[in-house]
Amino acid sequence: MNMQQFRKEIESRLAGEGRSLIYDHKEATLRIEDKELKKGVTLALKPLLAKWERKDFAGVDEALRYVEVGLAAMKQTPALQGNEKKVFPVIRATSFPTETKAGDALLYDEHTAETRIYYVIDLGDSYTLINENMLADSPYTKAEIAEMALFNLRSLPQPLKEDVVAGNKFYFLRAKDGFDASRVLDPSLLEKMDRQAGGQLAVAIPHQDVLIFADIVNERGYDVLAQIALQFFGEGRVPVTALPFMYEDGELEPTFILAQRRPKSD
User: Fold this and answer.
1) CB 46: neighbour CB atoms within 10 A?
2) In the predicted model, is pLDDT for residue 240 greater than 50?
């Protein structure tokens, strides 16, 4: 299936009354907008076509469901007061906008040179980003929202799946609740992983739906981590960064890993 055929397939599944579909040929993106709200979701078609060609139809369906859920969420305007237990932090790349398309400033804090922390109200199948206007309409300060979000984050489960490659241990956290990457903001989790590491603890946040820990004990481990981070970054619905982080003294430092594996000399 070529791009034109695939585009028509996706458009047929997302078309609906009250919606406009705008295709950007140069970027191969499809913009789905609510005509009344003048807001919408932009869908990158190239990675979706790659999934289709791999017969990963479930992955395509998930992306389309994300569009539907996102459009529905735009029609909701939840208030902070009364939703205190639904406030959570999310990790985004520093390239992520700091204001909405309507010009409303989003609530965020700096995190690392690669990442920022934004705050959301969890709506179940989706969430809405908290902006300054929502904060002004509430009895809370920004610091209180941040504290509230981190408190709620610590109540979430931390399921870890372990894999071993060349003696290096890799742990994948995928709870499928939209806040997988956010767990990196829990210092107790980072400290626990550091205590049990036999070598250098590294962390990867390739996209919002996964958090990767690596216990690196040899050079091969750095190479594998770099490959994993890049692969997950390319597959993520909301990419964050392909750069891994080294964990040292309670701090995360983005690190560019250049594999230099040479054959051993006789």
Assistant:
1) 11
2) yes
Asked whether 132 and 98 are in contact (CB, 8 A), the reply is no
Alpha-carbon distance 151 to 79, whole Å? Answer: 19
What value does the CA radius of gyration of the chain take, rounded to a whole number of Å? Answer: 20
Helix (H) or strand (E) holding 46: helix 45-53
Q: What confidence tens digit (pLDDT) does each residue in 6-24 have?
A: 999 999 999 988 899 999 9
User: Residue type for 122, please?
Assistant: D
* Nearest to 141, CA basis, from 95, 187, 102, 107: 107
| pLDDT attached to residue 264 | 37
Tokens of 40: 């919408």
| Mean pLDDT, the chain, integer | 90
Ranges of beta strands (E only) in the chain are: 19-24, 29-34, 39-44, 87-93, 108-110, 115-122, 127-129, 160-165, 168-173, 200-204, 211-216, 245-248, 251-254
Q: Read off the pLDDT of residues 110-131 as tens digits, 9 standing for 90 and up.
A: 999 999 999 999 988 778 899 9
d(CA 121, CA 127): 5
- Going by C-alpha positions, the residue among 153, 158, 164, 78 that lies closest to residue 121 is 78
pLDDT at position 262 over 70: no
Whose CA is closest to 201, among 217, 219, 223?
217
- At residue 136, the 3 state secondary structure works out as helix
pLDDT over 90 percentage in the chain: 70
Closest CA to 154 of 127, 112, 193, 190: 190
Q: Which two structure tokens, joined as six digits, stand for 109?
A: 């804090």
The pair of structure tokens assigned to 39 is 């807001």
**Are 43 and 7 within 8 A, CB to CB?**
no
